[in-house]
Amino acid sequence: MTENYNYNDNQFNPPAPEEGKGMAIASLVLGILSILLLCLPYFSMPLGIAGLVLAILARKKGQGSMATTGLVLSIIGIALGILFLILAVIGFAILDGAGIDISDL
Asked: Which of 10, 21, 47, 65 could share a disulfide with 34, CB 3.0–4.6 Å?
């Protein structure tokens, strides 16, 4: 007497992955990197702009709160990058006006 077992009924089937979260995740990562690399404006600003574009595209696709977080972080990264550049220009102008040679620093 051989009993036939159907092993497929006992398998765990993982849920299907959610589609379309790639742009939201990318915007989130780029927004975080734009803030972390703030002292390198040549990297920070383009990362923030790319994160902003991806976040806007992801929100148009309805990808939710992760895209919104990426949008906010990208805007913060861009704003802080602009502020950092303005303060650097003002600082160099003050040093130059005081007669301090910047190349000696």
From this structure: 47
Long-range contacts of 47-54 (CB under 8 A, 24+ apart): 47/77, 48/74, 48/75, 48/77, 48/78, 48/81, 49/74, 49/78, 51/26, 51/27, 51/77, 52/27, 52/78, 54/23, 54/24, 54/26, 54/27, 54/30
Give the pLDDT confidence of 14-38 residue by residue, as tens digits. 666 666 688 999 999 999 999 999 8
Q: Which helix (H) or strand (E) holds 88?
A: helix 65-97
DSSP symbol at 10: G
Q: Output the pTM of the full model.
A: 0.73
